[in-house]
Here is the input.
Amino acid sequence: MNIRLIRFSDNVAMAGILRKSLEEFNLNIPGTAYFDESTDRLFETFQSATAAYYVAEDNGIIIGGAGIYPTNNLPSDTVELVKMYVDSSYRGKGIGKLLMLECIEFAKSSGYKNVYLETMPELSAAVSAYKKLGFNLLDKPLGNTGHFSCTIWMNLNIA
Here is the structure.
């Protein structure tokens, strides 16, 4: 298994994993990444010095991904962990954690002090993983993600 930056050729596979994952939990609803225009253009979306998207691959097959993005209207010292999804047949093996750690390291090296994320209660395994890494619950959302269906907001201080 290898973790690397996304390539243009990974767009279709990663969009498929993201949408299939949300469908598994009946979360293919408005206000989620399912309908984001950027879901089909992850490579293009993350072509910035302040953003990065990592994919996990196993024998050349994309099995998951996660990104760091400076979402609009976040505090200047905060970046968002976004579009973190792992193919269902690879979950529970620590791949999500490795992707998150790669993203957190990018955030630190880019000078950010906080990593913010939004999720939903249906994704309880992910919420548990975030808590194990030190993410804390927030009372309200930050920034302007457009993900109005997300009802769990979390932050990790990395300073």
The beta strands are 2-5, 52-58, 61-69, 78-86, 114-119, 136-138, 152-157.
